[in-house]
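My main concern about presentation is that the manuscript never shows what a single data entry looks like. The format is easy to grasp once an entry is in front of the reader. For illustration, here is how one protein appears when written out as sequence plus structure tokens:
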Amino acid sequence: MRVIFIAAVFLVFTVQQVMVMAGDPEKSLPKQSKEEPTFHVAKGVDVNGSLIKYYKRGLDYAVDYFGNYGPYHIYLFGPKDEKSVRSIFRDRAKSRVNPEAKETGEEQIAEFLKRSNVVKEIKSILAGESAGGLTWTQGPVRIYEDVSTNATERAKRPIENTWGALHEYHHVFQIAHSGAEEERTSDKNSNSWMREGMATYSSAKFMENLKFIDLKDYMLELRKFGANISRPGINEFISKNPDYRLDNETYWDEGVAPQVYYMIGAWATAYLIHAKGIDEEIVLRDWWYDIIPMGRAAAFKKHMKISLKDFYKEFDAFIKKPDQEVMKIFGKD
């Protein structure tokens, strides 16, 4: 089954909020949120309740797997009611108010609503354009937001709706457990392939667990034609770009981020789990706990039993093999 989900759009601004774990003062982890994820739905978008229902199907699964981090706000917009859209944006501004700031709450709200990107986003919503993904805020008020500018269309595709919720929430967990305020080349942050590839793999695996897709079929489709991510697929991309580097962070600007970070990154994740025999929960979740305390390279080597340098070399030789050969890793399960 082929599906389409909204790819994540990241704004790399944040202040890492951590807590010292009892009994281990050298290791710090983000504090889980006591707040449940909050939905903000524009009028006319979720007429029969199915939009939230099928979004929560994915979100609840992901929160159960990764833990509850937030505050997490889900914004589901549509073009039918301008007054409702503007009211939700005002609530969005209120959620970002910093009580310690010199400016009053009303001044902070007014400043947010006047931002050029906010004005542009509202216009996009009212025009019925489809965009969105995950963002998070900078500063002492740390908030994660998943925004769909045309959720009316999302409501028509319940399977994709669930898939997208799974993908985006994995990013919430990842961002919480890496130095996302730093460049992705920083050892305290995570590489793009780690974020996008692992979230692509995890959401596909969870969709299989929910009995919506077959993971092996999906991974093969990534190689053949790009599945639900983009075109071309891995095979064609590598044939034209044999010298690509999984750890190269410039591909966002070069237009091949889908092929490298999402697709090849998903296969790198699968290789760790299915070929190297590393437990799924370690790859998708547990090793992230050590990125901030230890650094990315040390944490990777500790949990994956191989250095990043050696992994890149080993995986590069693997991913260039024919489909029939690479698919054998799934037979070991």
Observations:
- The first strand starts at residue 19 and ends at 21.
- Strands lie at 19-21, 24-29, 38-41, 72-76, 132-136, 144-148.
